[in-house]
Amino acid sequence: MARKSTRRNGGNEGLNITSMMDIMTIILIFLLKSYSTEDISVTPSADLVVPISSAEKAPKLAVQVVVSKSQILVDGVAVMSLGTATDPVSGAEVPSIPADEKQGQMIQKLYEKLLTKAETAKTQAQRTQREDLEFKGEILLQCDSTLPFSLIREVMYTAGQAQFSNFRFVVIKGGG
Q1: In this structure, are residues 171 and 52 in contact, taking their beta carbons and an 8 Å threshold?
Q2: 38, 112, 124, 135: least surrounded by Cβ within 10 Å?
């Protein structure tokens, strides 16, 4: 009985550690559930103006192909430089693939680089036997918003020939 009277009379007791642990556990679970991470970070190059879109999907980890006004990069490594050509409609100079760098619509250097990436990914998936590393043929495509569609079509055609058929375009979230 002496204990009960001490508590009621405002005796000097410390904090209840069980209650504190419950509170800390709830806070920790809340923070873990609300914390999200992105697998990839996408940073456009200096001469790249990414288009604006109302898309809601987050980017996934994939081979990154950047088509800027001056060059094509695969996973941050320059594959080739672009030339210029005269646009038949507007008469303006626009970026294009040099004629000696392509066969029909296929861009030879880009094809070789992407085919190497595809074979490496398939080999890695086969060795590890992990489903999350399985080759899905996905490309994260960053294109300058001012590039002619004919150039983007040639890049997409080349990627398709190198077994990359799932395209995800990088855009800036905005618009309606």
Answers
A1: yes
A2: 38
